[in-house]
Every structure is written in structure tokens, then in C-alpha cells.
């Protein structure tokens, strides 16, 4: 079984924030693969479903923690303990400011790179969980980061946002099969990142 945790803040006020793109991605997954109804579990809104792979269907639990972003680990840790899973069974979908808008990278383990949600998960389950990093670009200066991540995507940006989260959903069988590298490649094939505006301050990279 997999836990697919979408990082974000609860409530309509935050729904279209850059910080909530991880939550948007797992919502797209739930729609694409016809997951069951949401229920309040593990300090989250959670729903269950299955993902087809060549070796058979893989069960998955989607978590949308309602703990607020910086305390995501409490919800993830509770669900992982309940199902007796390991960190390798956990995939966190979240916004990555150090990736240019629309870029996508998979990674297992490593540091939090200043992301308090990832730091919280690490504190509760250790660092060796899988990370699906959705690029939202950097505002150019650290003092601007908080406003940047808590601001809504502009209407024009929603074109690439929707393409990226739909690609995360469509390519999911590769993730469920444990082939994160192939999953990353397929997401990028389905949703090529928008060409960077040379006037923008977003910086790419890993």
C-alpha cells in the first residue's frame, strides 16, 4: 500500500495558493483513478483507491492533511503507523521553489531545503520517504518567499498547473510500480515545463 500525501493548507482561503499544488496533485489523482469518498481520518481528509500496474493493482491512500502545512508530519506519521508501512511507502507531493515553474523531480531522502512541511514529515517518520517535487519557481529573494508561496497562482499560470497535476495523475502507474525515474520522465513528457520568461526571477535546478 502507498500513502500519497498532498501538502497544503486546509480551507478555501488557501486552495489556489502555490503552497497547495501538492494537494491539487493528489486531488487530480483521486479524480483520475476514481478513488472513494473523502473521510476525516488521520487528521486529514483521506480517500482510498487502487492504481493499476503490470504486476497488479496497488492500493493507495490519499492524504490531504488538515494540520496546516508545517505540521504535515503528524498526519503522515499517524497513517503510516496505522497501516504498518515504511517511509518508502510514503510519497509526498509538494511545491518546490528551487525548481522552475512547471518542472518536476522525484527524489528519495535528503534534507528539507527549508521546507517546513518536509521537515515535519522527516521529524515523524525519518527522511527516507519519496518526494514528488512540483516546481513553483523562486521569487528571487528569501524575504519574498512567504508571500510567494501563500499567494494564488495567476489565471494564466493555471494552464501549466493543470497540465502538471493531470500528468502526475495520468503517469501514476509508474510510481505505483516503484519506478520513480520512469514516473518523472513520463510526467515531464506529458506536461513539458513552460518556457521561462527571461524577466522572471525563478531559478531552476535540483
Q: Write down the CATH topology.
A: Rossmann fold
- Name of the level-1 CATH class: Alpha Beta
Q: Looking at the chains present, what oligomeric state does this protein adopt?
A: single chain
Work out the helix count: 7
* Rg value: 16 Å
Query: Rough shape?
Result: globular
Mean of residue pLDDT values: 93
Report strand order across the widest sheet: 2-3-4-1-5-7-6
Describe, in plain words, how this protein is organized in 3D.
It is a single chain. The chain has one domain (2-190): Peptidyl-tRNA hydrolase (Rossmann fold), CATH 3.40.50. Helices cover 33% and strands 20% of the residues. A hairpin with a 2-residue loop joins strand 2 (39-41) and strand 3. Strands 2-3-4-1-5-7-6 form a 7-stranded mixed β-sheet, sandwiched between helices. It is of the alpha/beta class and 206 residues long. Mean pLDDT is 93; it is low at 198-206. It is globular, with a radius of gyration of 16 Å. It has 7 helices and 7 strands, in the order E-H-E-E-E-H-E-E-H-E-H-H-H-H.
Amino acid at each position: 500500500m502507498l500513502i500519497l500525501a498532498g501538502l497544503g493548507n486546509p480551507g478555501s482561503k488557501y486552495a489556489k495558493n502555490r503552497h497547495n499544488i501538492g494537494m491539487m496533485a493528489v486531488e487530480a489523482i483521486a479524480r483520475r483513478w476514481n478513488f472513494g469518498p473523502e473521510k476525516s481520518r488521520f487528521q486529514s481528509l483521506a480517500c482510498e483507491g487502487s492504481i493499476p500496474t503490470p504486476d497488479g493493482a496497488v492500493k493507495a491512500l490519499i492524504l490531504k492533511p488538515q494540520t496546516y502545512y508545517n505540521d504535515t508530519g503528524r498526519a503522515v506519521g499517524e497513517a503510516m503507523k496505522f497501516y504498518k508501512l515504511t517511509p518508502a511507502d510514503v510519497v509526498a507531493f509538494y511545491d518546490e521553489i528551487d525548481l522552475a515553474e512547471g518542472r518536476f523531480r522525484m527524489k528519495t531522502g535528503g534534507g528539507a531545503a527549508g521546507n517546513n512541511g518536509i521537515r515535519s514529515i522527516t521529524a515523524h517518520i525519518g527522511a527516507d520517504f519519496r518526494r514528488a517535487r512540483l516546481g513553483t519557481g523562486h521569487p528571487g529573494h528569501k524575504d519574498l518567499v512567504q508571500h510567494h508561496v501563500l499567494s494564488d497562482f495567476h489565471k494564466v499560470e493555471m494552464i501549466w498547473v493543470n497540465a502538471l497535476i493531470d500528468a502526475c495523475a495520468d503517469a501514476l502507474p509508474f510510481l505505483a510500480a516503484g519506478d520513480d525515474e520512469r514516473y518523472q520522465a513520463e510526467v515531464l513528457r506529458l506536461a513539458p515545463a513552460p518556457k521561462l520568461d527571461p524577466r522572471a526571477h525563478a531559478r531552476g535546478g535540483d
